DNA sequence: CTAGAACCTGACGTTAACGTCAGAGGCAAG
DNA sequence: CTTGCCTCTGACGTTAACGTCAGGTTCTAG
C-alpha cells in the first residue's frame, strides 16, 4: 500500500466500527479509554477510524473471550502490529497460552461430567 | 452404607472442608448462603459437614470454572444426588453443555492465534 | 431549515464470587 | 486459667467490561 493510497483511505465513524465488529459503541469508546484503540478526531471532535479497526476490535473480543484483560492486550499489541518482542513479552505470550490450554482442559473435564449426567438422565426417564 | 454407619460418620468443621477442597472458609460459607451446601450446626452454632462435602465443593469449583453460576448449579443439583430430572432440567443441562463446547472452540481459536504469534516471534529474534 | 439519527463527555450502575475487616464467642492444651 | 487457634455474624470492598442515563452538539436527508 502506497502513501497516497493510505492518505486516501476512507475513514469511518464509531457506529460503523461497532456494527462491523458486532459490539456496542460504548465498548469501542472503552477500548480507546484503555489504550487499545487510537482514533483520529474530526474538527468537531468525532472519532474517525481506519477500516482495519473493525478486525482489530474483533481480535480484542477474541482475546477477551480467552480471558486476557485489556491491560494485557495493550502490553502485547506490539507483538502484532510491529512484530517486535522483548523477552518479557515472549514470556507473557507463553504464560497466556499455557493458561488458555489449562482452561481448555478444565472445560473439557467439566464437559465430560455434564455429558455423563446427560447420558444417565436420558436412559432413566 | 448402613444407617448405623451413617450415624457414626465423623463430622468435620468448616476449616477442614476448606483445606480439603482447596478453597477459602469464606467460599464455603458463601456456598451455604447460595443454597449449594447445607450444614448441620453444633450446639454452639458451628457448622458441621459430612465428609462428602469435600468432593462436593470440588465439584462446585469445577462447575464455576466452566462458567456455571451458583444459581444454575442449585437448579441442577437434583440431577446428581437424586438422579431425578424433568424436561426443564434436561434442557438446561444440554444448554450448558453446548455453551461449554462453544467456549472450548473459542478458546482453541484464540490459542491458535497465540501460537501463531509465538512461532513468528521465536523465529524473528 | 428542520427533524431525526448519530455523536460527544461525564458519571453512576451492574454482576459474581468471593476478600477483608471488626468484634465476639468457642475449644483444646498446658 | 490462659494462650492461641478456630469459628461466628454482619457488612463493606473488589474487579472487568461494559450498560445506561443525562444533557448537549453535529451530521444528513428531504
TrEMBL record, chains A, B:
GO terms for molecular function, please?
A: DNA binding
The family database entries (SUPFAM superfamilies) matched by this protein are listed as: Putative DNA-binding domain
Q: Using the record's annotation, list all stretches that form the HTH merR-type domain.
A: 11-79
InterPro entries in the cross-refs: DNA-bd_dom_put_sf, MerR-type_HTH_dom, MerR_fam, Tscrpt_reg_MerR_DNA-bd
The source's superkingdom equals Bacteria
Q: Does the keyword Transmembrane helix apply?
A: no
UniProt keyword Cell inner membrane, yes or no? no
Protein keywords: Coiled coil, DNA-binding, Transcription, Transcription regulation
Annotated coiled-coil segments of the chain? 90-117
Show which residues constitute the signal peptide: none
SMART domains, A to Z: HTH_MERR (SM00422)
Q: What is this protein called?
A: DNA-binding transcriptional MerR regulator
Amino acid at each position: 500500500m502506497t502513501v497516497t493510497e493510505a492518505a486516501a483511505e476512507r475513514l469511518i465513524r464509531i457506529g460503523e466500527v461497532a456494527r462491523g465488529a458486532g459490539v456496542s459503541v460504548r465498548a469501542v469508546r472503552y477500548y480507546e479509554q484503555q489504550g487499545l484503540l487510537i482514533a483520529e478526531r474530526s474538527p468537531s471532535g468525532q472519532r474517525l477510524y481506519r477500516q482495519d479497526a473493525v478486525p482489530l476490535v474483533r481480535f480484542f473480543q477474541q482475546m477477551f473471550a480467552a480471558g486476557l484483560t485489556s491491560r494485557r492486550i495493550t502490553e502485547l499489541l506490539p507483538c502484532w502490529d510491529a512484530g517486535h518482542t522483548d523477552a518479557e513479552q515472549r514470556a507473557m505470550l507463553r504464560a497466556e497460552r499455557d493458561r488458555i490450554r489449562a482452561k481448555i482442559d478444565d472445560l473439557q473435564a467439566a464437559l465430560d461430567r455434564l455429558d455423563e449426567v446427560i447420558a444417565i438422565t436420558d436412559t432413566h426417564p
